[in-house]
Amino acid sequence: MDLGAITKYSALHAKPNGLILQYGTAGFRTKAEHLDHVMFRMGLLAVLRSKQTKSTIGVMVTASHNPEEDNGVKLVDPLGEMLAPSWEEHATCLANAEEQDMQRVLIDISEKEAVNLQQDAFVVIGRDTRPSSEKLSQSVIDGVTVLGGQFHDYGLLTTPQLHYMVYCRNTGGRYGKATIEGYYQKLSKAFVELTKQASCSGDEYRSLKVDCANGIGALKLREMEHYFSQGLSVQLFNDGSKGKLNHLCGADFVKSHQKPPQGMEIKSNERCCSFDGDADRIVYYYHDADGHFHLIDGDKIATLISSFLKELLVEIGESLNIGVVQTAYANGSSTRYLEEVMKVPVYCTKTGVKHLHHKAQEFDIGVYFEANGHGTALFSTAVEMKIKQSAEQLEDKKRKAAKMLENIIDLFNQVRTDGAVDSWLPLHYSEDGQNRVWAAGDAISDMLVIEAILALKGLTVQQWDALYTDLPNRQLKVQVADRRVISTTDAERQAVTPPGLQEAINDLVKKYKLSRAFVRPSGTEDVVRVYAEADSQESADHLAHEVSLAVFQLAGGIGERPQPGF
Length: 566
Ligand code: 16G
Ligand code: MG
Fold this sequence. Notes:
alpha/beta, 5-stranded mixed β-sheet, 19 helices, 41% helix, globular, binds magnesium ion
């Protein structure tokens, strides 16, 4: 380590005194002007992690669905998965060290993790379209180079594309080529193969309007569209040419406001979808003939995907276990439909992709989606092998179904480390013996899977929507002095503290039909989140308001008391 050079460069990316940030599920995220030192230091940390794992590490500069003024940074581990928890702690310590302590913290980390400083390091960098991202990614590069690391700057990428690049590089290109063309080719090939088998390829199945949140998704879809145009034509809106990133558009806006994005003209029954700012989330929607807006969220996406996969398995004659993983935010109607009509086991985990992902790995095929549109399907290696064999050996109809499944697996843009592909991996990387699969969801790949399924099944967007009717629901936020006074259990569905809160919620819920409510401290904002659903919108709204008041009274509310009306 050239400590002199580190000190000199660090001073050029000086930390504002007293600023404290936390590496959360979404990495570091805050106003862009507070992040220069964090970026430089994450460049340093990525080099240490790369030396330790003897693998390529990724650094993504993005703040996803946050406002344009914000930014953020996430490190991507060797198999394209999220950073290991112990290194998240190092990231927090390093980012928060005052200027004079930074070197000591850096040395501490490398000693604690037994990093061989002589080892080569390689870091790949991607960024979203925020005005601040280019300069911030340059600060990452400064950190990488001052510690002697090599790097490749991919420039503009979606978050899932950067994960793909990291995985491809660490598996010697066996999964795919670590280039943007490699990504386009891999996904498009699987999509075109799949949709070739669709008997109904009328125009209504072939065209889709996409709201790109004025973000990176627009650039990448535009580059990609000619690769899959045989199977699907996309019309892009909010492509960044005029509007502001995530402003009145994008998946987060559409889901939380339950209304269409601005800047998109929607004719009745046209199929539309929205990406978020870094293209790892997707929701669908349409207007019916009466002009009513219908949202098709992550729950209905999971239902479509799991029912299709189940049908294919029946056709092949395989009895594999499929499970669906949701969070407490999943609409009660979706859970009921999956369990009672589809007879698929459903599990509930805490909010946050890593929790769902972990649970989904327990199944031969695990489909997981958060209601907000974050999700994917995971296939165990054994299943993948079985399906590949079936695609070669079985006869006619069965073979066709196996081929479809094979293409769907490719289309999900998932990679894994268990079983058969172990031989691809750098042997020295085995963090905790778990099957590590990165597949936290990719809006582009999810979109192509959904479009292929709709075409193959000949389903219109209304028919898909009609699988079940969502229970009316409402989400609210409450300001409290310290949101940590709320602790939860049962996958966040029950409040343990403060005393009396759960009893109050139980009493309120009893007043309404088909009702349910829960509260949880947010992991990304300084608020308590409240969710309620009931048999009518009015009841859901009332219940949410009453629960908010209970939180305000029992959990130390601050500011104005929650008011009724939305
Ligand atoms: C993060 C999570 C997302 C979750 C959200 C909840 C990842 C990659 N992202 O964005 O899955 O839905 O947090 O936010 O894990 P909240 O805690 O503020 O409600
Ligand atoms: Mg995102």
